[in-house]
Amino acid sequence: MENTNVKPAKGKLGIMVVGCGAVATTFMTGVLMTRKGLTKPIGSMTQYDKIRVGRGSDKKYLHYKDIVPLADLKDIVFGTWDVYPQNAYQATVYAEVLKAKDIEPVREELESIKPLKAAFDKNYAKRLDGDNVKQCKTRWDMVEQLREDIRQFKETHGCERVVVIWAASTEIYVPYDERHHKTLAMLEAAMQVDDREHIAPSMCYAYAALKEGCPFIMGAPNTTVDIPAMWELAEKTRMPIAGKDFKTGQTLVKSGFAPIIKTRNLGLAGWFSTNILGNRDGLVLDEPANFHTKEVSKLSTLETICKADDQPDLYGDIYHKVRINYYPPRNDNKEGWDNIDIFGWMGYPMQIKINFLCRDSILAAPLLLDLSLLSDLAARAGRYGIQRFLSFFLKSPMHDYTREEEPVNNLFEQYTMLKNAIREMGGYEADEEID
């Protein structure tokens, strides 16, 4: 790491998670168990992946921590907000994702993680009804209370740095509105007059985090930081932002499999995706207004990989449908079915079926770790604004749509972006091009 100009990862890193449900508790429990040497952080790029640096006789493959100064797991301190008051141990048991043998060894640490009162508006998640909620007169008051939470957490736990990451439920869809979301001044004015239609609670979390010098990561498909006003705030505070929506199951498959069809120049007539899940996320998504937010996120992946304008014969008439169904018996064990109708030589049709029986929180937990550590790294490297190199972990990557920029959804192109960013921050040459 002699070539890097990134500031060292000194002191404690606070990770404040919005939401203390299945995803958050699986993440926190896994990190605590790993620190004790009782489990392995499988699925984490920052803990397992190796990147080639150098060429020829100088070529070597290194873990991320040997290229850039990542925060050590032993230096992480957890905090959380949630609408339910149960501590992290109680929430972990309730989630029924992990077995007792993987929870009890860190029971004491989990019990000490008590959720702060959430900034919550029931109109944005009608299926939730917790009582651990802040009493906020206005959206601006909500922001100020969240800023105080971050300051108090940082002081209480002696943290040098804090990252805020959203792992709460999907909010109802808030479309971009130029009158309220275009500039920072407009956004602040809307918060101050308590515009609850255009200012979602998640926007208050993001605003508070950035103003307190914390990177913010949006792990749901909420509009939140995907607006020019938030980009302006991130530039002003020189903080990284990333989003949106953790790429875990079906979309991970789609972003990896669709490039096979495109690269082979096969035609695509239709792609039907459906899911069943029974956790809190599934309950919230059973509400049509909340599902629409998720639908917009999931539908964006395919069209940016298989571009109709480039190959109208192959991708000019794709029928793409996505469905999510709440099914309580499965709890966190999500199942995704994909039916893919393709066509080949002389237009003859073929089909591909994919059935992915996955564990939602098991796939999401390493993403929270990687996104938190890499956002902290980006901040120490002086990278601010939209972190496109983190698209690898996200379902609907942020991009400047006001300038007609298209997101990169191809998993392999995203991986190239990730590797090159790590190389650059480590003082090595970025030597793979993205076509």
From TrEMBL:
InterPro entries the record matches: Myo-inos-1-P_Synthase, Myo-inos-1-P_Synthase_GAPDH, NAD(P)-bd_dom_sf
Keyword Transmembrane helix: yes
Keyword Glycosyltransferase listed: no
Myo-inositol-1-phosphate synthase GAPDH-like domain: residues covered: 249-361
Transmembrane feature ranges: 13-33
Pfam families (UniProt xref): Inos-1-P_synth, NAD_binding_5
Gene Ontology terms describing biological process: inositol biosynthetic process; phospholipid biosynthetic process
Keywords: Membrane, Transmembrane, Transmembrane helix
Gene Ontology molecular functions: inositol-3-phosphate synthase activity
Similarity section: Belongs to the myo-inositol 1-phosphate synthase family.
Name under which the protein is recorded: Myo-inositol-1-phosphate synthase GAPDH-like domain-containing protein
Species in which this protein is naturally found: Prevotella histicola F0411
